[in-house]
Every structure is written in C-alpha cells, then in structure tokens.
Amino acid sequence: MPGGSSGLAASPLGRRVGNPVTAIAIIMYATFALLMVAIPQGMVNWVKDFNPGPAQDVVLAGAEAIATISGRLGADIPYRTARDFFLRTTGKNED
Predict the structure, then answer these.
(1) Which phi-psi region, left, alpha or beta, contains residue 15 (left: φ > 0; alpha: ψ -120 to 50)?
(2) How far is Cα 38 from Cα 83, in angstroms, rounded to an integer?
(3) Dihedral sign, CA of 60, 45, 35, 23?
(4) Measured between alpha carbons, how far is 70 from 44 in angstroms, rounded to an integer?
C-alpha cells in the first residue's frame, strides 16, 4: 500500500488487528456483557416486554439467572446503590 500502510488497524496494545470491524464487534459485545452483569434488572425488564411465548420464557429464565449470579457476585452493587439514591432523592418507589 502507498505510504507503507499495511491496511491493518493498530490496537492500543501495539498489536495489529486484522479487521477493524472485528475489533469493534468485540468491544460492543464485551460492553453488552458488562452491562448485563452490572445492570441485570434492565435485561430482565426488557425481556418481560417481549410477546409472551416459549421464546420469552427461555430468554427470561436466562436473564433471571444472570441477575441472580450478578447479585451473588456483588457486580450489581453500584447499580443498586445509585438506584436507591435516585429513589430516595426523588421520593419515587420501585413501581
């Protein structure tokens, strides 16, 4: 390629990434996984909005399992703390 560029994107660690789309996909899916663990109630609520049926039952069971594991690991503590603060400050309740 002109100018000595190989067409590969550089990563922050200095390694070459073969396809920038692959790197972006990895970052997006990793962010989604982190959000699922850190704010599991969001996924549970989202799945509850699905049309009732067998698919919702399966996905809801998985979302609730992730929420349970997240709670046991304490990964959702920042979310719960911020939510409690919000509810106290605004005078709103969980409903």
Answers:
(1) beta
(2) 12
(3) positive
(4) 12
* Segments in 1-95 forming alpha helices (H): 20-38, 40-48, 54-73, 77-90
- Cβ neighbours around 29 below 10 Å, total: 10
- State the average pLDDT over residues 9-36: 80
Q: What is the per-residue pLDDT for 16?
A: 65
37 CB-near residues (< 8 Å, 6+ apart) = 66, 69, 70, 73, 75, 76
Three-state DSSP class for residue 17 = strand
* Cβ-based neighbour number of residue 63 at 10 Å: 21
